[in-house]
Design a protein that fits this description.
The chain is an alpha+beta fold. It is built from 2 helices and 5 strands, in the order βαβββαβ. The longest helix is centred in the middle third of the chain and has 14 residues. 25% of the residues are buried.
Length: 117
């Protein structure tokens, strides 16, 4: 007997790297670049917006793009972003999550070795 596919538990799942390495590590880390506070801001914004009740914002360990941090990845699309400020978070919410458009100026591509400017 075939079953119909279930609707995903979350429409969107966001993973924000909050990894912290030892001081002076050559790759750096996202926590040292402000990701803990930015993750908290993103999570608080999502909880305040009724239209975002079907998304999940999680902190993550190392996502292995340390030099580009702080980074987050949004699934199911698998779009990666570098973000520096609450304004960047607001733009990701407004454009990517609510409007379904990629925020080109913050998007990370597989070939990148330095963060977008």
């Amino acid at each position: 007997m075939e079953t119909s596919p279930e609707k995903p538990f979350y429409r969107i799942h966001i993973f924000c790297c909050v990894n912290q390495r030892a001081a002076g590590h050559p790759r750096g880390d996202c926590a040292g670049k402000g990701s803990v506070a930015l993750h908290a801001y993103l999570k608080s914004q999502a909880k305040m917006m009724p239209e975002l009740m079907d998304i999940r914002v999680n902190q993550s360990g190392c996502l292995d793009r340390c030099e580009l941090g702080p980074v987050l990845v949004i699934y199911p699309e698998g779009v990666w972003y570098h973000y520096r400020s609450e304004q960047d978070v607001d733009e990701i919410i407004a454009q990517h999550i609510l409007a379904g458009k990629t925020v080109e100026r913050l998007q990370l591509h597989n070939s990148m070795v330095t963060p977008p400017q």
